[in-house]
């Protein structure tokens, strides 16, 4: 598989795009005014302990306090992934996956209001929720993740060779100093040598001692360690001999990457390229257009079918449709081909859009059990390329596939868009006819109140045009029915579904008094 990383940087923004076989599969954005905090370590102050939900809120200096679930309080846990994150399925504020079914001591026996404690951010603030934090601190290196509070020695699940896994685990147990913590060997650590292991482990242990020292001399809340910035994190976590090249369009960043690699993995230096072309890097490789598609509801499939992707507060729903692809003779084969195509695209879109939490996919109904198995196998195979943890359940009796995907940060959609001021985030607004009916009811209330003798009603130009063309007697009819003098005026500054009631010659705004609530 061909794999490439493109990095485009300006003083205000850095964007990283990962392509597989010339198809965009991941985008990461870092902006100067929006700091990433996942991986940062804080000396926090426990604000409140809530036994009812077995969680605590920890002040760390961010706008909202960090959420600490009981599953993240204990300081020795053996269920970590290669990024040092607990096994959280991303479906809310509780602990996730297998850890959720474990029995824990009551949180009030483990931590108390007013305590100071070291915590690490595992999830960015998303929507109305503050950051998710854990006391199970971990420090990621290129080859290993060091966990000072754990005794666990593990190997990434993506290293599949049994002999290599045994060798790496034995090497780690041999090198790791007694009572110094635990480690997980990352996917990049396959074929890791003893010297490289010792060198990186010593660096991480030294970094941890500095963090402890900083925490001892700090007063909560305080940040005691910052995780690597976006580009350095991508180089550390993703860039390996399985990546064909990395292309950078900013000279200083290019030099920084080469300097970082020189000390970390000099063998990769010849894969780093500087792009000085005047045409924007992302434009020339079609990345800009591919990013724009990531914000659209509809995604077309090569087979002629299409997906409709709808993110909501509770979950992400994805609908699969055959579209113009209807096949020729065998409807079962037509449906299978569309669903296989959709399975691949669903996996790619989840990565590209960085959507997490609960996902429900409505594949086209399949009568043949073998076809269902094929689609699930295809979906899981492509999800296997995802760095985020995912879990897909079998197709239900309703033809739905329920999935979870690790949620660490706001999705691309959440991070780069905001709630529409016209529709309030609903994606739809009242029609001009509906607005006129609302105005009509409001004017009836005005007439019944008897306090206003004359009114000016301001509406969006589309509503005024509808009244003129479709209900030209609107003003005359209501004036006769309610014996109320009023004028209808257009106002381009209003939203389409908004109106204003202005009373008397002074134009006093009385909308709130008479409008529907």
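Sequence proposed for the structure above (517 residues):
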């Amino acid at each position: 598989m061909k794999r490439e990383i493109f990095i485009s940087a300006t003083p205000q923004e850095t964007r990283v795009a990962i392509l597989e076989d010339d198809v965009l599969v991941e985008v990461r954005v870092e902006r100067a005014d929006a700091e990433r905090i996942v991986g940062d370590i804080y000396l926090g102050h426990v604000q409140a302990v809530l036994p009812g939900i077995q969680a605590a809120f920890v002040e760390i200096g961010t706008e909202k306090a960090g959420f600490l679930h009981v599953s993240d309080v204990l300081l020795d846990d053996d269920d970590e992934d290669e990024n040092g994150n607990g096994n959280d399925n991303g479906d809310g504020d509780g602990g996730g996956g297998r850890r959720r079914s474990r029995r824990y001591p009551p949180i009030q026996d483990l931590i108390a209001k007013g305590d100071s404690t070291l915590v690490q951010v595992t999830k960015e603030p998303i929507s109305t929720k503050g950051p998710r934090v854990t006391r199970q601190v971990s420090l990621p290196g290129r080859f290993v993740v060091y966990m000072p509070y754990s005794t666990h020695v593990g190997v990434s699940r993506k290293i599949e060779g049994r002999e290599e896994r045994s060798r790496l685990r034995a090497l780690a147990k041999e090198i790791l100093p007694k009572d110094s913590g635990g480690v997980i060997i990352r996917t990049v650590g396959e074929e890791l040598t003893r010297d490289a292991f010792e060198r990186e482990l010593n660096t991480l242990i030294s970094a941890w001692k500095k963090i402890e020292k900083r925490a001892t001399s700090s007063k909560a809340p305080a940040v005691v360690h910052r995780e690597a910035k976006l580009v350095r994190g991508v180089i550390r976590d993703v860039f390996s001999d399985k990546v064909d090249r990395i292309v950078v369009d900013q000279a200083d960043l290019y030099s920084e990457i080469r300097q970082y690699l020189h000390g970390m993995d000099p063998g990769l230096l010849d894969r780093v390229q500087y792009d000085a072309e005047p045409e924007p890097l992302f434009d020339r490789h079609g990345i800009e257009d591919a990013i724009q598609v990531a914000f659209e509801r509809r995604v077309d499939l090569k087979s002629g079918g299409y997906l409709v992707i709808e993110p909501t507060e509770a979950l992400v729903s994805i609908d699969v449709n055959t579209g113009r692809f209807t096949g020729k003779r065998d409807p079962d084969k037509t449906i299978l081909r569309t669903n296989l195509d959709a399975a691949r695209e669903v996996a790619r879109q989840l990565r590209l859009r960085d959507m997490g939490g609960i996902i429900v996919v409505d594949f086209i109904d399949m009568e043949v059990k073998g076809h269902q198995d094929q689609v699930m196998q295809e979906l899981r195979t492509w999800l296997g390329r995802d760095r985020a943890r995912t879990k897909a359940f079998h197709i239900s009796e309703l033809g739905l596939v329920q999935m979870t995907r690790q949620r660490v940060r706001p999705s691309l959609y959440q991070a780069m868009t905001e709630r529409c001021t016209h529709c309030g985030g609903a994606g739809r607004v009242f029609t001009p006819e509906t607005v006129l009916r609302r105005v009509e009811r409001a004017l009836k209330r005005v007439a019944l109140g008897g306090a206003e003798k004359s009114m000016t009603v301001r509406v969006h130009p589309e509503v005024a045009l509808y009244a003129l063309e479709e209900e030209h007697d609107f003003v005359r009819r209501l004036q006769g029915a309610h014996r109320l003098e009023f004028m209808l005026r257009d106002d381009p500054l209003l939203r389409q579904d908004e109106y204003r009631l202005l009373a008397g010659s002074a134009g006093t705004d009385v909308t709130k008094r008479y409008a529907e609530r």
